[in-house]
Specification:
Helices cover 55% and strands 0% of the residues. It is mostly helical. It has one domain. The longest helix has 18 residues.
Length: 78
């Protein structure tokens, strides 16, 4: 006979994935890229270049910020 599955505590809101510092660094990197290239939207290569900057600003953050996560965060901020 198997034991009943363990229940995880249910939370209405997930734990925050982005710190305030990471968000500010992402916004600044986005702004700098937009000013440098005179465009409103960035390409994947631009997010690839920004992701290490965001990750390095807060070394204890988990999980690591990828270009896809940076892109998604900027879409949510718009």
């Amino acid at each position: 006979m198997s034991s009943p599955p363990s229940k995880k505590p249910w939370s209405k809101f997930p734990a925050p994935c982005w710190t305030q510092v990471e968000t500010v660094v992402l916004i600044e990197a986005y702004r700098d890229r937009c000013y440098a290239f005179h465009c409103g939207y960035l390409r994947t290569a631009d997010y690839d270049a920004m992701a290490p900057t965001v990750t390095s600003c807060w070394p204890y953050a988990s999980p690591e910020k990828t270009s896809a996560k940076c892109h998604h965060k900027m879409e949510k901020l718009h």
